[in-house]
Design a protein that fits this description.
173 residues; mainly alpha; Four Helix Bundle (Hemerythrin (Met), subunit A); 76% helix
Length: 173
């Protein structure tokens, strides 16, 4: 066993707790702060696994930009984006979705551990990935998909603000 294993387990426990905080938080601001803690913990795990470039990318892109964007949008919403009432149907759908995902993950892990599959095959060491190699792949053939990911995020932000503003107008009248 590697000497980093206990630290990795501890970091994974923190990662799971912060992920639960994202889902179970009553207020969106607390959820966004839990997302920030989750993102920072994930960056620490990447550092422990000697993936420095991925760790720095995690810090800059997710912790630095995405979470700040979420907080900005939540703070634009009236009352900090708080929801009215608890919807039982939504909770049931969440439990069914989580159960389905857990079952699929368990099946995939057991199938990979027991039977022959591509997931159980040993990973062949690829050529050393440098920042130049990653940059060439990201800004070469993957440039258009990389840039297109911003469009759904922009649409989601505009939609959320529009829905909350419309709800705010109805409650004033």
């Amino acid at each position: 066993m590697d000497a980093r294993f206990p630290y990795l387990v501890f970091a994974c426990v923190i990662l799971l707790l912060t992920a639960l905080g994202v889902v179970l938080a009553k207020k969106p601001v607390y959820s966004a702060v839990s997302l920030l803690a989750n993102s920072l913990t994930l960056a620490v795990i990447y550092l422990m696994l000697s993936a420095e470039f991925v760790a720095i990318s995690q810090l800059i892109i997710y912790s630095g930009a995405i979470v700040v964007l979420f907080l900005f949008v939540v703070l634009l919403l009236p009352q900090g984006g708080s929801e009215s009432g608890h919807n039982r149907g939504r909770a049931v759908a969440a439990v069914i979705g989580a159960g389905t995902m857990f079952t699929a993950l368990t099946y995939a892990l057991l199938r990979g551990a027991v039977g022959p599959s591509s997931a159980a095959a040993p990973i062949v060491a690829a050529k050393a990935s440098t920042v130049l190699d990653i940059g060439r792949s990201l800004f070469g053939p993957l440039l258009i998909p990389f840039e297109l990911t911003t469009l759904p995020m922009l649409i989601a932000i505009i939609g959320a603000v529009t829905l909350w503003r419309r709800q705010e107008k109805v409650s004033r009248e």
